[in-house]
Amino acid sequence: MLDLPTEFIEKYQQLLGEEEAQKLVASLQTESKKAYRINSLKFKQKTPKSTDQPVPDIPHAYYGEVSSQDPEWVSGSVYSQDPAAMFPAYIAKVEPGENVLDLCAAPGGKTTALSEALKNKGLLVANEISATRVKALRENLERFGISNALITNNDSEALAKKFPNFFDTILVDAPCSGEGMFRKNPDAITYWSQDYVLTCAERQKDILTEAVKMLKPNGKLIYSTCTFSPEEDEAIVLWLVEKYGMTIEKANHVVSEKVSYGNPSFINSDLEDLKKTLRFWPQDNLGEGQFAAILRMPDEEVEVKSKKKKKQKNRKGLTNEEKGFVKKVLDHFNLPESLQNWEENACVRQDHVFIPAINPSELKGLKIVNNGVELGLLKKNRFEPGHQLAEVLGQVDQENVVELDSSEDYKKYLHGETLRVKTELRGFILVAREGFIFSFGKVTGNGVLKNFYPKGLRILKDE
């Protein structure tokens, strides 16, 4: 049983009335809902998991649980995510070719959904201020096979100086008091208080002040939290409307009766458009708690003080010899559209060969975690393909694949062990389990499969 703060219960008794507040409190004592999304960048190859319990409104999303050791997860063919948390990226309705920013991106659920909508076209910037959480963000985006993402580890002010009036769409899933996470993460209860709610609201304003500087005129802001608190939800949306002249848009494509809407009376406002915002209550039995709003910037630019841009240096491309080393490996695989012009687009830095999502010379002063797709590493007179490349290649059908037929061999490979396999293939190959490509390997002349699964992702034998 969750020991909910008396102050929390009394707050929602006042807002909702005794009966509805009782439903909220009772729902927080039940188990949280688990769900997953199927990665549409990869699912044509093989549809993973059961699809008989769809999440309302969200395409390719289903209730159920996926283990982090399942081949569907390891290959990036699915992403485990709270059902309600799927809606902010869904209502963004981004289009291929847009410049999109996920400002508070870790661990990556919303970012991966945005990447599906972009279809590897345009630019996706995924930022996370926490140096610890950004590592999980990178792993999840790499696993998903995203080729147009720039991952950064900065505060919003640093990004605003670099990208003034730049993005078509920005998603801000803001740090909040976490009321909607109580049953999923009971630790959130221990630091909740009304004072903390108000502190979070001020922090959200600070983040959004910088976010709006990065929106193009008429750009779209998706604001979301995982809390019910009106101080962090309707009140913040009203602040954006009043301070920046933004307009609230309705998510016409959300039709489920399990979704509730914003309530102007919660903050003593008469702004009817607040009813266009979305709120997800756990008692509605869709998922955890969530709030989301679509806001549109006015047509004029927000004035931003930024440093004068210096003339950018050309990126360092590959020499003909280096291209030959890379080509010798890549010629054995079918390349998705995003990689087909690699000879023209690839560059090299400290022997790392990558196709940048944005010219590296334009990013000076930012903490860059990953830029585009790392193809691999140049070594003495050879090229060694990287793990991110394997996950991107998993988007299309491949012939040079070694299938691990037994669960025992699959577990051994995830541990980092070398295997003996029956195959006529030699050299670098892709490794799959149940049809899901998840790694590179290298087959030697005597049929030994050398393990190229990254050490940082390997699973210990006792897990």
Count of discrete alpha- or pi-helical segments spanning 4 or more residues: 14
> What global shape is seen?
globular
The overall pLDDT average reads 94
Number of domains: 2
Strand content: 15-25%
Helix content: 25-40%
CATH-assigned fold name of the largest domain:
Rossmann fold
Count every beta strand, where a strand is a DSSP E run of 2 or more residues: 22
Structural class: alpha+beta
From the alpha carbons, calculate the radius of gyration and give it in angstroms: 24 Å
Distance between the termini: 28 Å
The assigned CATH architecture of the largest domain is 3-Layer(aba) Sandwich
- CATH homologous superfamily of the largest domain - what is it? Vaccinia Virus protein VP39
CATH class of the largest domain: Alpha Beta
Family: Belongs to the class I-like SAM-binding methyltransferase superfamily. RsmB/NOP family.
Binding site for S-adenosyl-L-methionine: 104-110, 128, 155, 173
Domain SAM-dependent MTase RsmB/NOP-type: 1-298
Active site: 226
Description:
With 463 residues, the chain is of the alpha+beta class. The protein has two domains: 291 residues, Rossmann fold (3-Layer(aba) Sandwich); 65 residues, Archaeosine Trna-guanine Transglycosylase, Chain: A, domain 4 (Roll). It has 14 helices and 22 strands. Strands 4, 5, 6, 7, 8, 9, 10, 11, 12 and 15 form a ten-stranded mixed β-sheet that branches. A five-stranded mixed β-sheet has the order 18-20-21-22-19. Strand 20 and strand 21 form a beta hairpin. Helix 1 packs across helix 2 and helix 7 runs parallel beside helix 9. The longest helix is centred in the middle third of the chain and has 18 residues. It is globular, with a radius of gyration of 24 Å. The model has no long low-confidence stretch (mean pLDDT 94).
